[in-house]
Structure formats: C-alpha cells, structure tokens
Amino acid sequence: MRRLLFKNLIRGPLTETAPAVDAAGVAELASVAEPAERGRLGRTISIRAVDAGSCNGCELEIHALNNVLYDLERFGMRFVASPRHADVLLVTGPVTANMREALERTYDATPHPKWVVAVGDCGRDGGVFAGSYACVGGVSAVLDVDLHIGGCPPSPSALLSGLLALLDRVERGPAVDVRGPGDANAKAAGR
C-alpha cells in the first residue's frame, strides 16, 4: 500500500491539457457583448438555468461557462438562483410531463422583459426522447422560444455565441437558431 502511495505521489496527477485560448475570438466576443447589453438592458444580464428533463450533458457545458477559460461574468452575464431575478431562462432537455408545470411556473415568475433559450437538440425538438410517452416535446411545445442553441451538447463557446446572438437579435424577430461549430448542418436562421 505504501509503495502504491509513493508511486502515485511521484507520478503526479493524470489530467488533460487545457484547450488553446483564442485571444482574438474572446476579445471580439467581449467587444460585441458590452454595447449590445448596455443598449437593451442597461445592466448585466441575469440567467436562470432550468433543467426540464435533460441527461445533464448540456448542464456540464453550461457550468463550464463559469470557469476561468470562458468566464461568463466578464461579458456582463451571470447566473442567478431565482427566476424572479432573471432576464433569460436557459432551458435544457426535452420538457417531461412532470416538469411542464414547473417550467410554466418558472416562466411566470420571471419578470418582463424576459427571453427563453432552448439549449441542445433535446430542447429544440425533444432530441432522442421525441415521441416518448414521458415527454411533451421541445421547449417550444410549452413556451415561446426566442433562441435555439443546437448541439448534443453544445460547446460553451456555442452557448456564449448564442447568448450574444440573442442580445443582437432581440428586437429583430421571435426566434433564432444557432448550431455549434462542430455541427455538420450548421446554419443560422435569424428572423
């Protein structure tokens, strides 16, 4: 036992190397975010994450938005614990029959102006769970959706780009469809 302990202390941890940071891309996102936010809300954007029945893949990517690599708060966006303090509802997963009422109550508790973002393929149309007896469908089956961010799960940079697209197009139309950079059918359909 002691030999195994010493061996592990000498070898060190086995971790993956951090992804390369695109400094130019981050600076560009920051320059776009601040004027768009200030012009529409005049303050920071508060996001309430709602899990409507997902597999938690999207939640892992959403949590990555708060790490030091993506640092969502430097763009003036932050997550809040209560829908009463939120501007944006970030909804993941297909809406299950058991979560429909909770999602509607969360939406009703969110003050105006408010926007709804459906995250992932499941949030868009139910994904692999579409047609299940336990699922109502995508988020748009329950609420009016302002933005769809596709992917299974979408990357943190796709989530960040989608939120910035929401800020940019909030006055143009009712729905925006954003897909991650790895999606073969990547297209943006802003109205």
Q: Strands, helices and their partners?
A:
Elements: H1 2-11, H2 23-40, E1 45-51, H3 57-64, E2 77-79, E3 88-92, E4 95-96, H4 100-109, E5 115-119, H5 120-125, E6 135-137, E7 147-149, H6 156-169, E8 176-178
Parallel strand pairs: 1-2, 1-3, 3-5, 5-7, 7-8
Antiparallel strand pairs: 4-6
Helix pairs in contact: 2-6
Structural features, described:
Helix content is 35%, strand content 16%. It has helices spanning 2-11, 23-40, 57-64, 100-109, 120-125, 156-169, and strands at 45-51, 77-79, 88-92, 95-96, 115-119, 135-137, 147-149, 176-178. Helix 2 runs parallel beside helix 6. The model is unreliable at 180-191 (pLDDT under 50).
The unreliable regions are: 180-191
Q: Alpha-carbon distance between the termini?
A: 64 Å
Overall average residue pLDDT: 77
How much strand? Answer: 15-25%
Number of beta-strand segments: 8
Please bin the fraction of helical residues: 25-40%
SSE pattern: HHEHEEEHEHEEHE
The largest sheet is: 6 strands, parallel
Strand order of the largest sheet: 2-1-3-5-7-8
**What is the alpha-carbon Rg in Å?**
19 Å
Q: What is the approximate shape?
A: globular
What structural class is derived from the secondary structure elements?
A: alpha/beta
Number of helices: 6
Quick gist of this model?
The chain contains 6 helices and 8 strands. It is an alpha/beta fold and 191 residues long.
